[in-house]
Amino acid sequence: xxxxxxxxxxxxxxxxxxxxxxxxxxxxxxxxxxxxxxxxxxxxxxxxxxxxxxxxxxxxxxxxxxxxxxxxxxxxxxxxxxxxxxxxxxxxxxxxxxxxxxxxxxxxxxxxxxxxxxxxxxxxxxxxxxxxxxxxxxxxxxxxxxxxxxxxxxxxxxxxxxxxxxxxxxxxxxxxxxxxxxxxxxxxxxxxxxxxxxxxxxx
Length: 203
Description:
Distance between the termini: 22 Å
Radius of gyration: 17 Å
CATH architecture of the largest domain: Up-down Bundle
Protein name: Glutathione, s-transferase domain protein
GO molecular function, one term: maleylacetoacetate isomerase activity
Keywords: Transferase
Low-confidence stretches: none
Pfam families: GST_N_3 (PF13417)
CATH topology of the largest domain: Glutathione S-transferase Yfyf (Class Pi), Chain A, domain 2
Oligomer: single chain
Structural class: mainly alpha
Shape: globular
Strand order of the largest sheet: 2-1-3-4
Number of helices: 8
InterPro entries: Glutathione_S-Trfase_N, Thioredoxin-like_sf
Order of helices and strands: EHEHEEHHHHHH
């Protein structure tokens, strides 16, 4: 089984960390959708990261679908069992994925589009969505986890929230302030010390 994609993608990284936590054996192949486009295309013509190539050659895409498959294949889960806890965790995950999406949109606009073609009203709107996502994520996280709780058993909410935070801090430094999001900052700090996170560092 091979996981294709670069670890600077939050979607690739959350997939890799989740597979490791689930005990799924896989090889990570760090191909870029930009610099190694043709090599990636030879594996998956859609060139979408992450891509998971199963042992029988089946190609899976989308981090949430990859993790869902891995949970069923391993017979383990990173989601809580009770409906209330699952509802809270799902809310956190949704907000974290929204934050990833808005970060990607701003990064692509700033780094890939020529300056004269960048549309500032659109960037401002996306920045507002990013701010809202992290504000809501900080609030939702308080219902699921407190800094006093050591991250011994890491759930999917913690994986996705921590990966999202590290991604935004790396690509949009100074945009989302840690003092205004103390829970997320501490969650990320704890998570990044764990073996599964250190095995697949943001790069």
